[in-house]
Write a structure and sequence with these properties.
The chain is an all-alpha fold. The protein contains nine helices and no strands. Helix 4 packs parallel to helix 7 and helix 7 packs across helix 9.
Length: 176
């Protein structure tokens, strides 16, 4: 049970109701990860827009983004996000026993060289942002990543920390 009073579908009005309807149409349900933002139309709208942007991203793939969220959430000890992203990665063919190993050694994630470099870079950003140097960015550029990609991947990882803290603080439950 969340510590906040979350708005359920039948009680939603305005922008919250619009977002909920879109989520039901596209996903079949409203994840608790979005209900937690429902007390604020502003915050919910920003999170919804963010989701849409990354779901349609032309260069940052869903598998890479799910690994970013999973490994950041593992670090932040957010059970909700670890569970959700583990489930997403199962859909990409990543088996549970593989996930345990990847959590301990992210360099073993089944990604191509380009995506693996981005994953490891983002994990470094969220663990040691002051340690990032020009050579780190140059390496990603040499693999074909644009500055937009690099920034948006880092933003995705850094934003995940904030989401994890919100989810943990307000005790959201796993979706059933």
């Amino acid at each position: 049970m969340s510590l906040l009073n979350l708005i359920e579908k039948d009680d939603a009005t305005g922008r919250v109701a619009e977002i909920y309807e879109t989520m039901i149409k596209n996903m079949g349900f409203i994840p608790n990860a979005f209900k937690v933002y429902s007390p604020s139309e502003y915050v919910l709208d920003k999170q919804f827009a963010n989701l849409g942007h990354y779901m349609r991203h032309k260069t940052l793939g869903g598998k890479l983004l799910a690994f970013i969220r999973l490994l950041v959430s593992e670090q932040e000890q957010c059970a909700y996000c670890v569970g959700m992203n583990s489930g997403i990665l199962l859909q990409y063919g990543v088996l549970p026993e593989m996930l345990e190993g990847i959590k301990h050694d992210p360099s073993t994630a089944p990604l191509d060289e380009k995506e693996l470099a981005m994953l490891l870079f983002v994990l470094n950003v969220v663990k040691n942002s002051n340690g990032i140097v020009q050579a780190d960015v140059d390496k990603l550029r040499s693999l074909g990543w644009s500055d937009t990609d690099i920034l948006e991947a880092a933003y995705h990882g850094a934003s995940q920390i904030g989401a994890d803290k919100i989810f943990n603080a307000f005790k959201i439950e796993s979706d059933r």
